[in-house]
Amino acid sequence: MFKHNLRILLVEDHPFQLIATQILLNNQGYFLLTPVLTATEALDAMTRTPKPYDLLLCDQGLPDFQGFDLIERAHKRGFVRRAILLSGLGDSQLHTLEQMAHERGLPLLGCLSKPLHGPDLCRMLDVPIPDA
């Protein structure tokens, strides 16, 4: 059942994890998804849309550049309103990324460890995203 109108750009370089995350989001009522496998594909998708994505949900370890850098580039160009970073890094490294994002004024809602845990993602997605 469609219940959320967030436009989400999902960036994950592992096809299985990309599909699993899409299913997780669909099961929670999020269907306005644009899935891509690389940061370059994500930037291409962002330039083709007339308005910013509500959420950039991306893996930290992408083949072409780091997810954190993608968030920073997308934010500076006005392509995204909020972001969540996914990573297999340890908690202290994720905390460091969150601090860096805060210091740089990036719209990072937080970092989530992989493998992704559905309830954690849903709690983070419940944070209101202001209207443009």
Structure, described:
The chain has 132 residues and is α/β, with parallel strands linked by helices. It contains five helices and five strands, in the order βαβαβαβαβα. Strands 2-1-3-4-5 form a five-stranded parallel sheet, with helices on both faces. It is globular, with a radius of gyration of 13 Å.
Low-confidence stretches: none
Taking strands numbered 1, 2, ... along the chain, how are they ordered across the largest sheet?
A: 2-1-3-4-5
Query: Which percent band covers the strand fraction?
Result: 15-25%
| Computed structural class | alpha/beta
How far from one another are the termini?
A: 25 Å
Report the count of strand segments. 5
Q: Largest sheet at a glance? A: 5 strands, parallel
Query: Which percent bin holds the helix content?
Result: 40-55%
Quick tags:
single chain, 132 residues, alpha/beta, five-stranded parallel sheet, 5 strands, 41% helix, globular
SSE map:
Blueprint lengths: L7 E4 L3 H13 L5 E4 L2 H10 L6 E5 L7 H10 L6 E5 L3 H13 L4 E6 L4 H8 L7
Parallel strand pairs: 1-2, 1-3, 3-4, 4-5
